[in-house]
Amino acid sequence: MKSSIKSLLSLAIIIVLGAGLVRWTPDLLAPRALAVDPQPFTLADRSLVPDGVTPDLVKLNEQYAKLVQAVRPSVVSISTSRAGDRAIVDDEVMRQLFRGAPQERAANALGSGVIVTKEGHILTNFHVVRGFDEIQVKLPDGREIPAKIVGADDWTDIAVLKVDAPDLRPLPLGDSDVAQVGEMVLAIGNPLGLAETVTSGIISAKGRSGGLENVSELIQTDAAINMGNSGGPLINMRGELVGINTMIVSRTGQWMGIGFAVPVNTARFALESILKFGRVQRGLLGVEIQPWTPDLLRQFGRRQPDGVLVAVVTNGSSAAEAGIRPGDVIESYDGKPIPNLSELRRFVFNTPPGQRAKVEIERRGKKMGLDAVIRVPGVQPVAAMNPGPTNEVGQLPSDGVLAGVEVRASGGPGGVAVVNVAPRSPAARGLQPGDVILEINQEPVTDMEAYAKLSSAIGSGNGVLLLVQRSDRQAFVTLSP
């Protein structure tokens, strides 16, 4: 036992003495370098880009950076809050701490905006500020300023804010009508709370709906847009505002290369209308449009579905006073071609009330120019011509596509009422009892006599174009033999 103790003491003394001989330095903690032979290396001493190309690219790069520096002071970050809302705490630690109980906190959201007037007016999206009590704007120089909503428009998803602050730098408004697909653009905003983020791309397409019924004629871009970019500017290479970034199409919730912006011309109209009247005042033409079908194109003798087909003209409207009739095809508005309903709606909406517009139409193969004074909504729609009681005997054509259709006098100012439609007849594909036939091949059906004359003139192997009133809707119907 004593021998073992002496051995342990001797070992301890040796360890202590040995430790005293060693100088404990950080180098001892470092990994030992492996012994390697030095390798020769030669770095590239010149660009691989052909002479004359690099200076142009460098200059372009410098100009691009200058453009960004010039426009960034006009872009703001927007934070909104709504006190008192109950929200589920998402953080895992907080969930464990409070055992998953919902916690009382202020709901908040982030967005972007762009200064457009020296007086401090800011354009953003309506959905960024909708329903929030407090709106805070952060300028690029670090100033945080409360903002108030001057006005908003749900149709275009545009809101106008106002801040009181000196030394603001408004961004000039461009012209989205002349912007072309393929033009380079910048998107600047506050995505995911990362203020003053700049992304670039091109205008990918124009005239998109983005899947929204209200907001039409959007600009599509591949500049990266994420949550928080909403309300921020889309800027062209002249440093002008061409759109207000509003939404993305994504399967993941994040950017997938498809973003949309409200065209600046639409935003400008909303801005000026709100500042002048406190709300957006849109023009109204007073027509309802029917989509083209192959049968309608054939009946109207048109090869392409350009222009818009008027199915209804509202009583007392601008269109009615101008002389527009059902069956007219509107081909241009103030000299601008009308390829579809969205274009017509945009042009009419952006026409100040009281202004005169030149409407070019085609009526039964003839071109006509009509003047329409655009007014704000408020006129009454066409009254539904429901069949009234009558003693006049029903009429049933003996042949043709209207064979099997029994009609009576409508009891209204015009047209004939459909009483019955024979099953499996050509008319059964387009007519039903209760319909009122107003026109046959664009000729008015004023009474039973007119119906008899027009229906008998239809050849047995020919189709027919009918203008039909069904309940409170009016539309063209084609019947084929």
Structural features, described:
The structure is a single chain. By secondary structure, the chain is α+β, with helices and mostly antiparallel strands. It folds into 4 domains: 72-162, Trypsin-like serine proteases (Thrombin, subunit H, Beta Barrel); 184-277, Beta Barrel (Thrombin, subunit H), CATH 2.40.10; 287-373, Pdz3 Domain (Roll); 405-479, PDZ domain (Pdz3 Domain, Roll), CATH 2.30.42. The chain is 19% helix and 31% strand. The chain contains 9 helices and 26 strands. A hairpin with a 2-residue loop joins strand 25 and strand 26. Mean pLDDT is 81; it is low at 13-22, 85-106 and 378-391.
Could you write a compact summary of the structure shown?
With 481 residues, the chain is an alpha+beta fold.
Instruction: Provide the spatial order of strands within the biggest beta sheet.
Output: 1-4-5-8-7-6
Structural class of the secondary elements? alpha+beta
Radius of gyration: 36 Å
- Which CATH first-tier class of the largest domain would you pick? Mainly Beta
Helix count equals 9
Number of strands: 26
Helical proportion?
Answer: 10-25%
What separation lies between the terminal Cα atoms?
Answer: 122 Å
Q: Please identify, by name, the CATH architecture of the largest domain.
A: Beta Barrel
The CATH superfamily of the largest domain is known as Trypsin-like serine proteases
Dominant shape: elongated
β-strand amount:
25-35%
Mean pLDDT: 81
Q: Main beta sheet, described?
A: 6 strands, antiparallel, barrel
CATH topology of the largest domain: Thrombin, subunit H
